[in-house]
Amino acid sequence: MSDTAIRAGELELSEAGPGDYFALLKPRVVSLVVFTGVAGVIVAPGSIHPLIAVVALLCIAVGAGAAGAINMWYDRDIDTVMTRTQGRPIPTGKIAPGDALGFGVVLAVGSVAVMGLAVNFAAAGLLAVSILFYVFVYTIWLKRRTPQNIVIGGAAGAFPPMIGWAAVSGSVSVESLLLFALIFFWTPPHFWALALYRRGDYEKAGIPMLPVVAGEAETKKQMLLYTVLLLPIAIAPAWFGIVGWIYGGVALVLGLVFLAAAIAVCFDATHRSAKRMFGYSIFYLFALFATMMFDLPAGTVG
To answer: Which CATH number fits domain 1-172: 3.30.1360.70, 1.10.357.140, 2.60.40.2550, 3.30.420.40?
Structure first.
């Protein structure tokens, strides 16, 4: 689609259906966000009324989706260029950019307001920080300027378990920061695996992802480094007594498989291992947080 067509599309009224607006929320990303938020609610010390917990998780989902919608509005020019994103609602002309921005802003403000009024202000503050960080720090500031975009900007995706924890406890603790760190150190190898086999897309769009700027060899080294650092961090919740040692054993096994996947990427001249590592990385995070929820210390009430 040409720049002229994009500008013309911005002047048109949106005739999108509910499914198109739902797609703006990046539902596949939101599903993982909500899942880690659920884990934060369950493993946090104390108790929360089930209805309030549902409201908190709904706010996390809506807030994450709102950030995704604003991201799509800002990135509409590069989404038109990249094969992976050309089918999104704005590049296809299904939703006008202004409508997407308004939709995202309303949902963002609404999710934070409801979280503050219905749950607590600690959780609302963290939700606001996560949305603002994703939009302004990652999307607007870092993504198009530095190959470290996903390292720093990836912090936005690490907030959900902290938000869930704060919804129950009303505070931030060392334990909730561990859950944050787990996702923070998981994000670079997860996303760089994708960037390796989608390198051409990022080159076309002019995005300085690590494989584009530093080359594939350096990217693979960095992936391996973060995967090594992730291994003890993933086991740490068991050391701190947040969860039991069944989780610790599962985290060790899953982490060693993740490490083996990173080593395979280093020695693979093709992108097959990177694709496998990307797929496994999603399973890895789901499996870790699922195990957390089923291996709580005796006497824990979530």
So the answer is: 1.10.357.140
102-138: per-residue pLDDT in tens? 999 999 999 999 999 999 999 999 999 999 999 999 9
Q: Tokens representing 283?
A: 């399973």
Residue stretches of the chain with pLDDT short of 70:
1-14, 298-302
Q: Considering only the top CATH level, what class is 175-302?
A: mainly alpha
Q: Which pLDDT belongs to residue 154?
A: 86
Q: What are the extents of the domains in the chain?
A: 1-172, 175-302
Amino acid 298: pLDDT: 60
Q: In the prediction, which pLDDT does 2 show?
A: 47
